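Tokens for chain A. Residues wanted.
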């Protein structure tokens, strides 16, 4: 399957930044052999989706509420972000788990709401530094997968070790391979063929300089990129470092 390179802008970006990114992606996307996604703040979804219309680049939200509407001040729902142009949604990011007390059960409810609302969920899992030092990383990720993913889950899993997010530190290649292999085994056991084909992204300090090595690891199906996705040049460099699906590139001999 084509790799997915997803940008998570977090609480960053102006309208000008979004339009600038759209121009750069519009020029470059056709020659890139992986799927591209930008998840800006909810305020920029509509403008970015319009600016990217007609390109292969998708737009996603960074969260959605588990209900479709109601008395939930400050929240946005899956149908709302879908109407604004989102086709994907990041759920259960460690910053939301930490800042907003999101539990696995809540992420599970949001993943159901996302699917019903026509969004593909990207569910984030990953251990803290303390948990890794204690050797508890696989137990933590097993629990998160079991409790966060609904029965009929048809989305993407992102493995993001919390200690690697925004720190410039990444796990060793062997540690990424071990965790992605573990997640693949869990998904296969639970979802069968769908689990064997599900994309598992790596996230946490992915940069142009380390992208090729991380994205070449077995069972890494792409990247969830935070800081580096704010720069069009860096985001595109990461996308070009991914294994390219040549079959899907435009045929240079077409029409001759
Ligand atoms: P980072 O963030 O690339 O800035 O480490 C990744 C993420 O939180 O998704």
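Reply:
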């Amino acid at each position: 399957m084509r790799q997915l390179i997803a940008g998570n802008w977090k609480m960053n970006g102006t309208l000008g930044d979004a339009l600038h990114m759209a121009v750069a992606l519009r020029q470059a996307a056709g020659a890139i052999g992986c799927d591209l996604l930008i998840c800006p703040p909810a305020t920029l979804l509509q403008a970015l989706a319009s600016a990217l219309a007609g390109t292969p680049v998708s737009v996603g939200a960074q969260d959605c509420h588990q209900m479709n509407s109601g008395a939930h001040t400050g929240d946005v729902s899956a149908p709302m972000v879908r109407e604004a142009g989102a086709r994907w949604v990041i759920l259960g990011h460690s910053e939301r788990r930490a800042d907003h007390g999101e539990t696995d059960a809540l992420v599970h409810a949001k993943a159901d709401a996302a699917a019903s609302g026509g969004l593909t969920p990207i569910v984030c899992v990953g251990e803290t530094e303390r948990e890794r030092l204690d050797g508890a990383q696989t137990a933590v990720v097993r629990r998160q997968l079991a409790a966060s993913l609904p029965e009929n889950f048809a989305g993407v899993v992102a493995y993001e070790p919390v200690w690697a997010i925004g720190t410039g530190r990444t796990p060793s290649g062997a540690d990424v391979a071990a965790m992605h292999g573990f997640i693949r085994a869990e998904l296969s056991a639970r979802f069968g063929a769908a689990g064997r084909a599900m994309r598992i992204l790596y996230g946490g300090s992915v940069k142009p300089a380390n992208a090729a090595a991380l994205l070449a690891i077995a069972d890494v199906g792409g990247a969830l990129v935070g800081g580096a996705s704010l720069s069009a040049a860096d985001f595109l460099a990461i996308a070009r470092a991914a294994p390219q699906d040549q079959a899907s590139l435009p045929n240079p001999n077409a029409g001759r």
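The mean pLDDT is 96. Strands lie at 4-8, 35-39, 58-61, 88-91, 120-125, 156-159, 200-203, 222-225.
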